[in-house]
Amino acid sequence: MIRIDSVTKRYPDGTVAVDRLSLEIPDRSITVLVGPSGCGKTTTLRMINRMVEPSEGTILLDGKDILQQPVNTLRRSMGYVIQNAGLFQHRTIVDNIATVPRMLGWGKDKARARARELMERVGLDAALARRYPYQLSGGQQQRVGVARALAADPPVLLMDEPFSAVDPVVRKGLQDELLRIQEELGKTIVFVTHDIDEAVKIGTMVAVMRTGGKLAQFAPPAELLSDPADAFVEDFLGADRGIRRLSFFPSAGLDLLTTPIVAIDSTAEQIAARDTDDVPYLLVTDLDGRPLGWCEPRDLTAGAVEAEQLLPYGRPFVAGTDSLRAALDCAVLSPTGWAVAVDAEGRAAGVVSQQTIGEAIRGAHAEGRKTDKTDKTARVAR
Ligand SMILES: Nc1ncnc2c1ncn2[C@@H]1O[C@H](COP(=O)(O)OP(=O)(O)OP(=O)(O)O)[C@@H](O)[C@H]1O
Ligand SMILES: [Mg+2]
Q1: What pLDDT shows up at residue 372?
Q2: pLDDT computed for residue 369 by the predictor
Q3: What's the average pLDDT block by block, 10 residues per block, for the chain (382 residues)?
Q4: Where are the domains of the chain?
Q5: I need a labelling partner for 263 at 20 to 30 A (CA). Which of 93, 179, 310, 358 fits?
Q6: Quick one: fold of 2-248?
Q7: Which atom of ligand 1 is nearest to the CA of 41?
Q8: Does the fold of domain 261-359 match that of domain 2-248?
Q9: Structure confidence at residue 144 (pLDDT)
Q10: Are 368 and 362 in contact (CB under 8 A)?
Q11: Does the CB atom of residue 34 touch ligand 1 within 6 A?
């Protein structure tokens, strides 16, 4: 565990970048430092690997003061990833990734083999190995940066705004990849961002910092959203806090109705036999059970319905896997007000009304008040 104990950093010109910061960074999870520009995030991160020395206070790694350890040993145990990846422009991708193993005295072939293995791990095509950084997209370069930091298999990964220079779609991909890598490798990651949505998405614990290098709140994301410590944190979290909090609640408990689901080749008798009193619409599926769209029962019983005539069903949610937020979004976007749930293969699993989702939300909030503080690991696709 990394323990930051009442650390202050005063730069020579008198700037207090970090002010009596205390944090316990748990092992094998992602701790995010988030806050406005200039609040001391980078300074904090660099104090952990001793690129910056604290003016006061101590930082302990597994109980030992980091100042008591040889700086090279310390840095070897910590991969470091920065914005724009900071790659060596004159080295190929494979040699960029092999840098640290080479420094540690590995032979060229072994280091390159390790680099190629890591390329695969971070989702980079092996064909890119011989290219130079300028021949890669921003997102690919960031992946190289992550692979390079992982090369010597350090237990700790320090990441300073690693994904902030790429577009939102690529960024989401990189975030998902990082969560996957973290799950596979169990690294202790300290991740700096100024984007609260990124912090909430990837953080197990989130430290919100304010200008002047002070800690405003240190909590799991669901708790930040439900109980911001003060007006600064609340303001920093931004609008839609209630809706965003729903992404921490699973859709698993939703009561799905299956009676309104009909295959497009159903006969009038089969349709008439259904008890659809509760649902004014039928969800028509193709022969594999994949949703096609909504129609009113009388349109279907009157004879053949063409797929083009159906009302669009919007974006379905994956039953159980997706969160209540995803389910609510589906219902809000659906022209019928009913959300469509699908299974992992995309086949219709049931439909659920806004009203039922609303009841589940009220139940989840009541439950959340009881469990928020204890259940720090709950993670739903969000
Ligand atoms: N070498 C330095 N000398 C003097 N002041 C510094 C130095 N480095 C950083 N600062 C100041 O310390 C404060 C914190 O800087 P830091 O880079 O840690 O912030 P940050 O939270 O990472 O900001 P950003 O989101 O913009 O990257 C700022 O006021 C900055 O101007
Ligand atoms: Mg910074």
Answers
A1: 47
A2: 63
A3: 97 96 96 96 96 96 94 91 86 94 90 93 91 91 91 93 85 90 93 94 96 96 93 91 89 91 82 74 92 83 69 91 94 92 96 93 76 46 52
A4: 2-248, 261-359
A5: 358
A6: Rossmann fold (3.40.50)
A7: 21
A8: no
A9: 93
A10: no
A11: no
Whether 37 lines ligand 1, by a CB cut-off of 6 Å, is yes
Task: Report the pLDDT value the prediction gives residue 301, as an integer from 0 to 100.
Answer: 60
Q: In terms of residues, how long is the chain?
A: 382
Q: What is the pTM of this model?
A: 0.84
Q: Which atom of ligand 1 is nearest to the CA of 213?
A: 14
Contacts of 206 (CB under 8 A, 6+ apart): 31, 32, 34, 199, 200, 217, 218, 219, 220, 221, 224
pLDDT of the residue at 376: 39
Closest C-alpha to ligand 1, atom 27: 37
CA-proximal residue: ligand 1, atom 30 (nearest): 38
pLDDT, position 241: 86
- Characterise 360 by phi-psi region: left (phi > 0), alpha (psi -120 to 50), beta (else): alpha
So what's the architecture of 261-359 in CATH?
A: Roll (3.10)
